[in-house]
Amino acid sequence: MTQQATQEPLYVGLAGMGTVGGGLIQLLQEDKDLIYRRTGRRIVLRKVLVRNVTPERAAQLPEGCELTTDMAALTDDPQIDVVVELMGGTGAAHALISRALEHGKHIVTANKALLAEDSEALFDLARTNNCLLRYEGSVAGAIPIVGTLTDPLAGNHIVSLMGILNGTSNYILSEMTTNGMDFDGALRQAQELGYAEADPTLDVDGFDAAHKLTLLIRLAFGLDYPFASMPVQGIRGMDKRDIAMAREFGYRIKLIAEARLHNEADGTTRLEAGVFPALVHHSFLMARVGGVYNAIRLDGAPSGPIFLHGRGAGALPTASVVLSDLLAIARGDKPNNTGFANRIVRAAIVPPEEWRSRYYVRVMVHDESGVLRDLAGCMAAENISMAQVIQKENEKNVVPLVFMTHETTAQAMTRALQKVHETGILQTAPVYYRII
Amino acid sequence: MTQQATQEPLYVGLAGMGTVGGGLIQLLQEDKDLIYRRTGRRIVLRKVLVRNVTPERAAQLPEGCELTTDMAALTDDPQIDVVVELMGGTGAAHALISRALEHGKHIVTANKALLAEDSEALFDLARTNNCLLRYEGSVAGAIPIVGTLTDPLAGNHIVSLMGILNGTSNYILSEMTTNGMDFDGALRQAQELGYAEADPTLDVDGFDAAHKLTLLIRLAFGLDYPFASMPVQGIRGMDKRDIAMAREFGYRIKLIAEARLHNEADGTTRLEAGVFPALVHHSFLMARVGGVYNAIRLDGAPSGPIFLHGRGAGALPTASVVLSDLLAIARGDKPNNTGFANRIVRAAIVPPEEWRSRYYVRVMVHDESGVLRDLAGCMAAENISMAQVIQKENEKNVVPLVFMTHETTAQAMTRALQKVHETGILQTAPVYYRII
């Protein structure tokens, strides 16, 4: 290994010094032995791009590394081999990565929003310039899903995938399930513990999970599902009654990201994908994903189902897979940025109204005779058959009536609930979730 | 991608046409589109080495591919880029791979016995000749564990790993647990279903799991644990009473392969590793691995725990990851055969008598007063404290007395049970398993 041991160090420029960036700086200093054992080279941090240069930040840097506020000082520096983008956001990050690729730098990023919303040009640039564009940290933290899909499972046909991809939402749902908290209380607790941002929109409204799902769809199927078209429903305002009712039926409510290939009769394929809360039977491994953990299930042919579970976020876990991406570049891996040789193609999309599923439905009705008959009649008119019904007694006049249906389409369910609405028996809007 | 699209095909020679070899031939014919999408190249099977050339075998081959019984026709053919070894066994496979590497061929194999018992020279040869030696199919079938450890988790320090690595044993234990079968009946059923060989030694006596554990230890820690020194205990003759008793305590009995790094006070590290039946608490994901499935849990710093679950065997699932290895070679990946830049080093070993664990113990005793006192006295003499005791009433005079201990060493447990033996209260040899 003399040959490798005498190799030049790999020179790195880092953009962004937030929690993950700070974690990477720490790992690069602590893990010199690991890096050398894994690659036979050293990794040297030359420059860090920040918005403001402060003495506190400068103190965290290794010797010989300097802070800069000038993007070009990173992207154009001939002595930098790799630019690590951990600044987040989309505009400036896109400009930085483009310019770095134009200068022939390899890229490591964990920026799921950028990659999901606007990365086609970046992947093209990386291909043209024969650069690596690696992003293991952008999906599900330390769960090794990007590398798994681009390499050991590349010989499989992935036919569907399903995941719990947002740790914040899963924490909130777990607390609501285990401790009977309501949504607002569980969100506040997540914020106090640092699991949720002050503005929790990206997490609880499902957009973070949808960003990650967009990346997984490309990696698994080689298809592009435009992020703007992705159906996304989050968990904001989830009623703890539904979580309790689901439990009585033997289910947990989880925020699920799902994508599924449909082979149509005419030989074409269409993709069904989206993010939504759903009931998952307690006997499934997916139902047992607790707290801030993430999990992904891949269904491949001929591999069968593969399930991966781990921490979905956190500064050091994410920094550690960013480091793994740097190790791959230090080893001299060839670009395999998307897992496919050519540009991925636009997916033909199954519109959400065609999705088939069993449903959990809760309606609030007056506790009167005839209500169940009217409800069942509206369902039957759309060929929806009810599998199980629970009607709870209540001291009040308005009671929840909960039922689970056999499989139907989203369209039929919407129409049936519209008919129920027209009967005038509903006291509040109906709540309904898919069952997995 | 014109550049890649006009690349030469990758030419492959295959040794062995058993179930996995036959599966690979099938996938290479069915998956031409997948292969081209993933690599921009074609993969062409040129020759297949078999012991006997038969018309039935010849009929399974693609056009232009020929059968041969001459090893050198594969290893020395300048028109073959990669030799895929799926013949099994150690002697002939070792000779074949050595000779192919000497001729500069890349290697793909799923031969865990060969890699575990005698592969140091092969990895050295691959390094010297700058060849890829890939073996994703050798551990846990379609679970992508080799690639996970060499790439996306390379930036982590794996501190321990644990797995259910033998599907046959797990099937037998699952049947004994779920259906109350005894060991012989469950083994016979596994044989009838094709999950167990006529000679089940490798599976039920733990050697297959130990082969895989040996490979995982190298990949996770960069350490060599000589296979011949590995402590291995299988499940042959497991008593269904112990499975039922374990359930009463809230545990499942699983055949566990485990490896754990110990950081010693003097700054050195030692490795504790082995294969053994153990009690796993039902709330752990590992306890929920059923039937012929496999699972692996990796504990890394800073990644935290990562859990992977999937089919551990099967002709097509294994062939599909063999195909993934071929895709990596077709992409022109650089050798990263062990995940480390230099030769891996010999592990310092924690001898089994020093292992610390909680224990499940079952002894058969006469149903007399004083027996529990004598037993507890022997345990106390070795500083072993008993956490829970179950004594069952029985119509016979000899009854099972089952207890779980707090943590102790294997050595203390052996000595305590020797003392119990000397009291004369034991009617049969004691049964004891570790608790995880």
UniProtKB/TrEMBL annotation, chains A, B:
Source organism, top-level taxon: Bacteria
Ligand binding (L-homoserine): 197
Active site, renumbered: 212 (proton donor)
Keyword terms: Amino-acid biosynthesis, Methionine biosynthesis, NADP, Oxidoreductase, Threonine biosynthesis
Catalysed transformations (reactions): L-homoserine + NADP(+) = L-aspartate 4-semialdehyde + NADPH + H(+)
Domain ACT: 360-436
Any single biological process term in GO: methionine biosynthetic process
Example of a GO MF term: homoserine dehydrogenase activity
Keyword flag NADP: yes
NCBIfam families for this protein: PRK06349.1
Identification of the protein by name: Homoserine dehydrogenase
Protein's organism: Candidatus Desulfovibrio intestinipullorum
